[in-house]
Amino acid sequence: MFNDLLFDYTIRTVALGSGIMGIVSGMLGAFAVLRRQSLLGDAMSHAALPGIVLAFIITGSKEPLALMIGAAVAGWIGALFVMTIISTTRIKQDGALGLILATFFGFGLVLLTWVQSRPNAAQAGLDKYLFGQAATLLERDVATMAAIGGLALLVLALFWKECAILSFDPDFARSMGLPVHVLSALLTSLLVAAISIGLQAVGVVLMSALIVAPGVAARQWTDRLGVMVLLSGVFGAVAGVGGVLLSGAAARLPTGPVIVVCISALALISLLFAPRRGLVWNWFRGIRPVAGQSV
Amino acid sequence: MVDWSGMAVLHMELFTDIIFIAIVTAVACALPGVFLVLRRMAMISDAITHTVLLGIVLAFFVVRDITSPVLVVAAAGAGVATVVLIELLSRSNRVREDAAIGLVFPLLFSIAVILIAQYAGSIHLDVDAVLLGELAFAPLDRLEFAGNDLGPRSLWLMSGILIVSLALLITFYKELKLTTFDAALAAAFGFAPAALHYGLMSVVSLTAVGAFNAVGSVLVVALMVAPPAAAYLLTDRLPRMLALSALFGALAAILGCWAAFALNASIAGAMAVMTGLIFCLAWMFAPQRGLLAQVVRRVRQRWEFAQAMLAVHLLHHQATSQAVVECQAAHLSEHLNWSPAFTERVVRRAEQRGLLAQQNGMLTLTDQGRRFVATILGGDGL
Questions:
Q1: Does the pLDDT at position B381 exceed 50?
Q2: CB distance from B224 to chain A under 8 Å?
Q3: Which of A126, A140, A150 is nearest to A24 (CA)?
Q4: ipTM, two decimals
Q5: DSSP type of residue A89
Q6: What is the pLDDT averaged over residues A151-178?
Q7: Right CATH number for B10-286 from 3.40.50.300, 3.40.140.10, 3.40.50.720, 1.10.3470.10?
Q8: How far is CA A240 from CA A16, A202, A269, B258, in A?
Q9: Residues 69-108 of A with CB under 8 A from B
Q10: Measured on CA atoms in the order A260, A262, A267, A268, is the torsion positive or negative?
Q11: B23-51 mean pLDDT
Q12: Rounded CA gap, A132 and A145, in Å?
């Protein structure tokens, strides 16, 4: 059964696309988790919806690159709103995130339903961005995803040391004279890129899981940033490919949610059974949580 | 997908039904939302609104009836279970609360979506509808009793939820207020913050279940967070914040319905956009906390500070031998490191206010100017 799946051309393309998405969102999501921005990913992926529809309205095509750029721009604007609200009002992060997430999504929904009520057949399929439809990934889409993802990871590699310092000790980074705001914006932009890659496959609603869960899982196995980021990418890729194969193996299994269940399962297993930080060992020994930072 | 383009022939009656459901839903969401925003738990509402779906699906497998009230109870239970799970995770010290939220709700929501997809034939639940709402169809599902039409079912459901949460709010107002603003003191008084916390979470879950029938799970978050956030910028008093939030919610509902009818677009989406616009207006123009007020205050402070500098400088030097030099208007810009144009404007403002008098380019403090310095320095100005 699995052999048939592996040699099926469509499944191979889709699995490759989901794997790339998993690697990129896993590696960049690890930083989001460390920087306590887990939910910013959720807000940005919801905020991307109006960008996708606007990109379609402006270009009149469903060219994945155009839609990804639209998603990224809208996600970025959403993040900017969140940060401005936090810095200029007494509303805290949670309120700002909820507000932007829901109102941007609502705006996207208005645009989407408005476009769909027009006599224009080309809009069909835009709503797959809500839950994602990995099965519709074409070779061209996968190439675009690989290009954007590769670029994002390259930038991460170039600024690796700065990003590492910023993630663990922003005050120290500032005292070293690093441009903290610029670096922070850079990491947020990379996260936006990762999100826009994943939207077609898992959709705006569930994308946040692919940002948070791999990082949480990876953190359980290591105390080293490099290892954690790599592991996070591997977990993301395993969940992406595994989810596609599983959902291909049975009828009526929607790919996006299955990928989310896979990555969440990896995270739960890691939380419970990782060698040193696993919760199960704690319960056995009846000792308090191990020292070290929670993520 | 909500598509009610074919419903253009609807009666006016149905439109009013839609608007009433929208208003009641918005108010019912805004009231618990106030406490979510104040307690910094807005994102937990995002989690709850997604996971109630799992409660509904699981309960459906047991009772096999999509209209059963058991579903509502189960959904509320799932909401509370979500909160417990998030707290367990973040208390384990392995993940922070935000990561715990981001871990729990996509998983539970995904499981619900998969279950619905697997048993699509037997469950009459559409994931799109759950997520996005179908307010346009809500008036079509009517409650009948002994053959009489009592109005839309969701209007009754949301009104019931609104009455329950109002009753709870009035009964536990004092306790809620204290646990929200000073949990430690509340605990010392024996108010059981934990019980109130889970009570609030139950109300939020219940409201989410009722509301997502009408507006969908994501937009419930807009109705719960945006109106209270806007109200929070306008007042410091809890009763006023509750009233303003309800008002903003209702206003967003009316404007949203109107915009959606005009554009032939999603009602729930338009309502969410309106809550966002109302927040933006409050953010820009709130009398004390708005961006505009902040800019005005900053500018005023700048002039006030400059005048204070000038007055203190004059007081310091005017009775001394260097007064001839130091109190020259022309010298000031050098000494205080101001541009000549700026110095001139500060001097003019201070003069208009009666703080100083100018004679042949020499500046002297008036009595009023001395009192001004005294209030700044906290002494008698001499």
A1: no
A2: yes
A3: A150
A4: 0.90
A5: S
A6: 91
A7: 1.10.3470.10
A8: 9, 10, 17, 42
A9: 85, 88-99, 101-108
A10: positive
A11: 94
A12: 14
